[in-house]
Structures are given as structure tokens and as C-alpha cells.
Amino acid sequence: MTAEVDRIITKKTGFNPDLSSNHIRCVCHKIALIVASGLKAIDTNTSGLTKCKKKTLGHVPFLDTIPENNNTQGAAFLSGDEDLDVPVLDQSDEDCEDETDELAGSPGNSETMAGILSKVDFVIQRITSSSSKRSEFELWRTKLDDPGPTLIAGYGIRWNIKWQSRDRAYQSRNVINKLIENEKDRQERDGGKSFYQDCEITQGDWEIVKRLNDILSEFYFITKKMEGDHSSCGMLLVEYQLIKDFLKDRLGSVTENEFRSMLKKMIEKTETYLAEALACNTILLTTMLNPSYRLSIFLAYFSSHHKYAKILLQQKFDERKAELAATFSSRESTPQQPSQPQKTSHRRPIDDLNLFPGAVESANTDKLANYLGGKYKVLPADADQCLVWWKEHHNEFPTLASLAKDYLACSATSASVERCFSAAADICGRDQGSLAPRTIEKSVSSHQWLKQGFKADGDFERAQVIVSQDLVDHHESRHEAATASK
């Protein structure tokens, strides 16, 4: 795809952007591939599970697997979570029990990590697929005063959905154990087949689930962070390095062969993607133009690339300075109110690392030296606020600000774009494929505004009256239906 974009841009403008060589691979895809490599090492496959023929309550992924081959076309990926509005099963539990074997297969060998996870997934899917079991779950959650969340089914291949499913199950493990105990008592009393196929989840099993979830939670946090509304490319190298450090730290604290095999595979994959990112000049420049890192991050973590990165930045700085010399006159920035970045409870060792211990507010006329020396330094914890920093200090560093405007616009992930494509596909179906791009854009925007409760006025006031009345009628009909069913 990038080669075709290169061809089109070159044909229309005469300038070759060389995107084939400077293509930034989506970090959310890469994180998913790192996780997949680790889970494959412990063989947590879903071969024993099949999709339910009936809809289940909760998250139901439906995407294809993500091939790592960059030449493969049509690979889809959504790294964010999707809250699907799925109706509750109306069928009786007898109907569901008739399809026990089709619903969730059978639990695996409980002596292996893959078997334990398969067993936990099986029980979760059995509970979420039955309306009576969901009701029993809510009842005992109240009786046991358990603050754990409701369960979601972990169908599909998306690792983050499985992580959420098992994380919720672990938090509600007391309720799940109670339901299994109740089923065992019922079977001893009345006979018949066990709804959970005689599965038992021990405390040791739950600890395995928790330890795996603790590892995957770091990837979940990084994925959500990189999907945020900020400049992400300048954070890419550091995030890969933090993943690598996190995995090595965990590797030193585990003794089980399965965990060690998983972590080693993840480290190997992370090192591959880190080397790939370090070979991209665009990523090197965006990292240095992030005021939380600048050139000091290369001394701290990527010393082998420090000299090359410094030469690269100086070269781009001189080129841009020459371009701006005739049209741009620098002036000192006026003092502005410092920005207040959003704080997060997820803290990492690098967040409070002072990369510029010798920084002073000098009057040096060399703007590049002042910047690299740490003037107006910010901590790595606020790396996602780099655009705010440049807004406050762009007048003092005009040449660097011009570079930052170009390079910090690069995104490290395509998740938001693909989410937009998915929204367009949901709104504009196959029979509307001939719509103009501008019409699709208007439709998607209008749909999002309606979902968020925006009221149209002016030329669209009459349309808003119709939409508002339709919403009122819809809510009234749902209320009447609910009242009639009682």
C-alpha cells in the first residue's frame, strides 16, 4: 500500500515521500503480535472452543487474525474495546443446555497453563451463555457482598478481550466458585449432567490466571496509552524499551518453564520491533523532538544510536533553519500559564527519571544547544503532553518548532483511523457503496453527534424535532414492552 501511495504522490506532485522506507508500523498491531507470540509459546489456543450459535451477553469479537506479513492486504484490527449492545437471551435454559457441546467445547488438560486457562474460559462462557446462571451469579454476588464486576464472554482472538474476561473472572472468583459448588450439590442431589462438566477451579488455578493477567495488563495499559489523543510517534522507542525492561524483570522473578518460555518469546519479538523502529529516521527525530526525551534518552537507553541521532538532528536543524531564514524572525516567547497534564495511577520507573540533571536556564544564543541541554525540561511521565509544551515555547525555538510541527504529526498507530473506517462501514452499508467520500464523512459525523446527544439547530431544526420525537417514541415503546412482560 505504501508503495502505491508513493507512486500516486510522486505522479501528482513530483515529490517522492519514500513512505516505503519511512513507514511507521502501527504499535498497537505490534503489541498484539508480541502478546500473541508469548501466548502461542504456552499454547493458549482456542481449538477446543467454538462460537455459540446464539448471542451472548458481553463482548463478542468478530475480527480476523492479524497476519504479520506486511504485504498481506485487508488485515483488520481494532485495538480498542467495543461495547456491543447485545440483547439478553430470551430462550429458556433448557434450549441452551441442549447445545452444551456446541457452545463452549470442553475444558482442556488442567495440569498445564493452557489447560487451566481453557478451563477458566469454559466456565466463564457457560455462565455468560445462560440467563439463569447470570441471574444466579448476580444473586450470589449480592449475598457474598462481592464487589467484583459482571462477567463477559472471551470469545474470539482479540487478546485484550480475553484479558478483560479473565480479569473480571478473577475479581469475581468467589462467586464463580460458589456457582460451581452449587452445581455440584445439585448434581449429587438430582443427578444428571454437570452444567460445568465437573470443572473445579482451585486457588492455584486462580493464581495462575492472576499472574498471567498481571503481565498482560502492562500491554493493555500501553495499548490504551498509545491510542490516546496525543502525538504518539515520539513515545514509540521508549515504550518498546519499557516493554523489554518489564519482561526481563518478570523473567528474573519466575521459575516455571511455561512462564519463562512465554516471556523469552515476547522479549525476542520486542527486540525485533525495537530494532525496526531504531532504523527509522522519522522515529528518531520525533523522539528527539519530544521535550521529555530530547537527545538525552539516547544516552540513557540507546547509546549505540546516540552519535547518529545527534548528527541527524543537526542536519535537519540546519536545513530547516536555512529554509526559514528569509521569512521567519525569532522572538522570545511570552510567559504562559504552565499546563497541567493529566495524571495516571499507573507509574513506571522512567516516569520520574531526570534526564537533564545539569539543566540550567542559560542565555546561550544556540537554540539547539539550549533545547538539548534541557531548558524548560519536563519529566518522562508527561511525554504525551509534548504538543502542549511546543505550543508554550514555539517562539523561543522557532526552527525546532517548525520541525516538531512536521514530525510530531506522525502517529505510531492506525487504530483511530481503522475505528473510523469501522464506524463508516456500520453506517453506510454495501448498498450505499456509491456514496461520495464527503457524504460518508457527513453521515459518520452526524451519527456520532446524535449518539453524544448534540442538538441540531438552524437549517436542521426541523430534522432535530423529528429525531427527538423518534427517540421519545422509542423509549416509550421499550418501557411499555418491559411493563407488559412483568
From TrEMBL:
Is Nucleus set as a keyword in this record? yes
Q: In which residue ranges is the amino acid composition biased (Low complexity)?
A: 329-342
Chief localization class? nucleus
| InterPro entries registered for this protein in UniProt | HATC_C_dom (IPR008906), RNaseH-like_sf (IPR012337), ZnF_BED_domain_contain (IPR052035)
Q: Which parts of the chain span the membrane according to its record? A: none
Q: Which subcellular locations apply to this protein?
A: Nucleus
Recorded GO CC terms: nucleus
In Gene Ontology terms, what is one molecular function of this protein? zinc ion binding
Q: Does the keyword Zinc apply?
A: yes
Show where the HAT C-terminal dimerisation domain sits. Answer: 386-450
Its keywords, alphabetically, are: Metal-binding, Nucleus, Zinc, Zinc-finger
Q: Which domain of life is it from?
A: Eukaryota
Residue span of region Disordered: 326-350
* SUPFAM superfamilies per record: Ribonuclease H-like (SSF53098)
Q: Which PANTHER family match?
A: ZINC FINGER BED DOMAIN-CONTAINING PROTEIN 39, ZINC FINGER BED DOMAIN-CONTAINING PROTEIN 4
Q: What is this protein called?
A: HAT C-terminal dimerisation domain-containing protein
What is the organism field in this record? Answer: Puccinia graminis f. sp. tritici
